[in-house]
Amino acid sequence: MTESTATRSIPISEQHRWRAYWVCVAVAALTIMDLSKVNVGLPAIEDAFNAGSTELQLIVAGYVLTFGLTLVPAGRIGDQRSRKTLFVVGLSLFTLTSLVAALAPNATVLLIARLLQGVAAGIQMPQVLGLIQELFRGKERGKAFGLFGATIGLATAFGPTLGGLMIAIGGPEDGWRGIFWINVPLALAAIALAIWFLPLTRHPSDKPLSLDPVGLVLFGISVFSLMWPFLFTTGSPDDDPSRWWVLVVFVLAFTAFLAWERRYAGTGKHPLVPLNLFGITSYRNGTMLSAVYFAAVPPMFLLTTLYLQHGLGLAAVYAGMVTIGFALISAVTSWVGGNLVNRLGRPLVVWGLVLLLVGVGLSVLVVFVTPPEITPWAIAAAMIFSGAGGGFVISPNQTLALADVPVKQGGLAGSVGQLGQRVGTAIGTAVTLSLFYSTIYRESSGSPDLAVYRDAYGFGMLAVAVLVAVAFAIGVLDLGARGRQRTALGEPAPED
Question: What is the pLDDT of residue 38?
Answer without folding.
Answer: 85
